[in-house]
Amino acid sequence: MAKSDTPSIVWFRQDLRLADQPALAAAAAEGPVLAVYVLDDETPGDWRIGAAQRWWLHHALKALADALAARGVPLVLRRGRAAEEVARLAREVGAARVHCLAHQEPWWCAAEAALAEVVELVRHPGRLLAESGLVRTGTGGRFRIFTPFWRALQQQMPPPAPQPVPESLRGMASPPRGERLEDWDLLPRAPDWAGGFAHWTPGAAGAAERLETFAEEVGGYDQNHNLPSIDGTSSLSPHLHFGEISPATVWHALARRTGAEPYLRELGWRDFAANLILQLPDYATANGRPAMDALRWRTGEAADADFRAWTRGRTGYPIVDAGMRQLWHIGWMHNRVRMITASFLVKHLLIDWRRGERWFWDCLVDADYGNNSVNWQWVAGTGVDSSPFGRIMAPLVQSPKFDASGYICEWVPELARLDDAAIHDPHAAGVAPAGYPRPRIGHREGRERALAAAAAARA
Ligand code: FAD
């Protein structure tokens, strides 16, 4: 396409990077670029960006703005309904077209459709390993079970080779004004609960560094990824969620390394979740198995008190408490422990998985509509692909099985002096320190109550 002086807009959302960013590459190839991010707390409704992610977003936008500015392109910040704001900007500058990466969240699909009514919108792939239309069943439908999905996804691999930052990138001579990031109040102030978030380095450079470190460790992933006491996973999830690194870049960096296959399969779950919410856009609120609608979750004061104890890491189950406190402190929790804490809420405490999903949404730096809802439903036994509700994880078995004592010592420091035999269940061992809560409910009692609720729902 011949270059012109008519600007093209790049609408950034969860794709905050310059390299391997097809929307940016396409816009740069056309002429001057107007880079836009809209803080939109209206379009996503209940899934507006949560508190932990606002912290991340602040730093990620700062990093993106700096990287763009170094190439003479300001990042224009606006607030409001994204589709309307982008359309307004397009009119203001007489943009030729708008480029974006296709997103899979239902509200973003709707916003893309609305914007496409009023401007020329080009939606590019780049958020997933494989373009969402490519992974289909033999009859052209979408998969609902992971294993066949993964088989079909592998047929599409490798993903296209990652592309560098476009050399032709240049900004408009007089770009429109935007808001100041500092005025968005994305960072917590009083109290500042984000001290532990210093664990992270948001932005593309932080993502690249994390990938480089993990590439040396991927061979041990199969053996280590279930052990919360060690740093055995990539910790790339918030970077992937915000699109600071493309999944294709991760794939190409690791695929040829010995032992990378189990890791790539895990990455495949991310594509699978996106594929499920495209079919079932209400997946964060509606049970994948409608028969589960009959299940009577606990409500009322006692259930609320249990929920509060769970959120605060005071259930009396050390592995659950360690996970919930890790989540609060660093905005992330190890995957094995996410399963244990989620299962404990849903089965032992018999509290609706949707309440847990909401809490995770607000606390996780990697909160992702697809990944969060698909995993909650999977653990809860309500999902299209999950095992039955009656399969109940035993936290007191899981904790020693996955060697969680180091993890518990770190996140539940009042138990740190207990030995390996006692730390998983200090009350049973008779060594619980004063102030450490008694279990909210015994394992057997919780299990029987959950099974009875499931039986009643079936009846
Ligand atoms: P790694 O083990 O290094 O995996 C690499 C990447 O693969 C991850 O970064 C992630 O993008 C993807 N991935 C791994 N496991 C899964 C999975 N089970 N489902 C989907 N993608 C996966 N992940 C999120 O990104 N956002 C969420 O909101 C989220 N909510 C969850 C809620 C529950 C109840 C559970 C059980 C899991 C949830 N997960 C979520 C999945 C998983 O726990 C995290 O992706 C993982 O812990 C992130 O750490 P990591 O990057 O070190 O993972």
* SSE sequence, one letter per element: EHEHEHEHEHHHHHHHHHHHHHH
Strand content: 5-15%
SSE-based structural type: mainly alpha
Bound small-molecule species:
flavin-adenine dinucleotide
**Percentage of residues assigned to helices:** 40-55%
| Widest beta sheet: strand line-up | 3-2-1-4-5
What is the architecture of the largest domain at the second tier of CATH? Orthogonal Bundle
Named CATH topology of the largest domain: DNA Cyclobutane Dipyrimidine Photolyase, subunit A, domain 3
End-to-end gap: 65 Å
Average per-residue pLDDT, rounded, comes to 97
Number of domains: 3
The CATH superfamily title of the largest domain: DNA Cyclobutane Dipyrimidine Photolyase, subunit A, domain 3
**Level-1 CATH class name of the largest domain:** Mainly Alpha
Radius of gyration: 23 Å
Largest sheet: 5 strands, parallel
Walk me through what this model shows:
The protein folds into 3 domains: 8-126, HUPs (Rossmann fold), CATH 3.40.50; 128-157 and 203-279, Serine Threonine Protein Phosphatase 5, Tetratricopeptide repeat; 290-458, DNA Cyclobutane Dipyrimidine Photolyase, subunit A, domain 3 (Orthogonal Bundle). Helix 1 links the parallel strand 1 and strand 2. It contains 18 helices and 5 strands. It is mainly α. Residues 225, 233-237, 240-241, 266-267, 269-270, 273, 335, 338-339, 342, 360, 364, 366-368, 371-372, 375-376, 379 line the site of flavin-adenine dinucleotide. Residues 225, 233-237, 240-241, 266-267, 269-270, 273, 335, 338-339, 342, 360, 364, 366-368, 371-372, 375-376, 379 line the site of flavin-adenine dinucleotide (FAD).
